[in-house]
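Sorry to interrupt, but I need a hand with the structure work. Leave the record below and I will have a look:
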Amino acid sequence: MENSTVRAVNRLTTHWAAQACAQDAGTVFAAAGVWPLLALLADGADGPARAELEEALGIPAETAAAAARELLAALAGVRGLKAATGLWTEAELPLDPLWSAKLPAGARGTLTGAPDADGKMLDAWAAERTGGLIEHVPVSWPPETLLVLASALALTVRWADPFREAPRPVAAPAGPWSRRPLRMLSRTTRSLDGVRVAQGATGPVTLLEVTGTRDVDVHLLLGEPAATARDVLETGIAAVTGAAPSLGADVLPDGRPGPGLMLHTMDAQHPGDLLSVSTVAFSLLAAHDLLDHPTLFGLDRATDAEEGHHFPGISREPLAIGSARQCAMARFHATGFEAAAVTAVAARPGAGRPPLMEHRVRRAEIRFDRPFGFLAVHRASRLVLAAGWVTEPETAVGGPRSAVGPRPARPSL
């Protein structure tokens, strides 16, 4: 992946975090699913719509289609990640052949004009491309819909060092999750390499890298109790992408150098540092209407059906954006992590004897027992594939539980 494209997608992720987490509510979103669609639209746009899309993308419109193709091809090569695109058009809509030729390989179809039938066709595509993690394409269906451009991402991560789930529900000792029967996860590993602390606008943020067995890792982010979700995610994105410095556990002082983190040096019988982690299982499903923040996504002028011909490079027929939405999910459990996003843009017209202590070692403990953020990151490129904020961990009332936990309920759109 081109570094410029990775930076551009991560930039959109950071900007989106400021909007999606403005109310500190639980959510998940994937700018990596939106950015390629905006890039393909920008390639066919003109006038103010093209300028707004360029600003949202962070790259020139003339290079956007090639960047989108390259990004989607690179995503398809990430182990554990499936990426797909689709284009469906009304039968009589003439498409510009130069624009069509730049589209990534993917599904092509014809809209019948019957919303129910078209919805079922696209929903089947979404379910197939995400392995059932998301079962519908989040698009509205006004009768005059002429074009639907969609992307699907589905990520499956397995932990290199799995967690153990507590045999019975456990409540957090204090804070907003106290008195709740939580699905608590814990593990102890022999390396502190995954622990870092970054300094944000509202204080330090503790980052824990949970390593996957293939190409993607998940980073958990904990800020101070008063820190906002926006600040924690922005600090975390800057730290994991290398845009801002962070300190590793090897240089952090003993004590409490970061939120939820305790470090101490001690004598031990055997060499080797130890990291003990306590966190929660969580499951999220979120629906985003991109047109609630049209400037963020460069879609303000493009929605004006009265102003004129926004996308002459796509079709000689006047087109305007009538719908732009994303449905995203994430699930974190003892053995791994799943995330998926389907994004669609629709266009309408315009103890014992003390042992001998011979080694100085460090012990670290991290507890995620109040709201925190997460980032799924491609290890090689540092591209953020999914981001979110956890406010409602999974709860249980006892009895056996599956390793992957319940499937999130479908949100209303």
Remarks:
- The chain has seven helices and 19 strands.
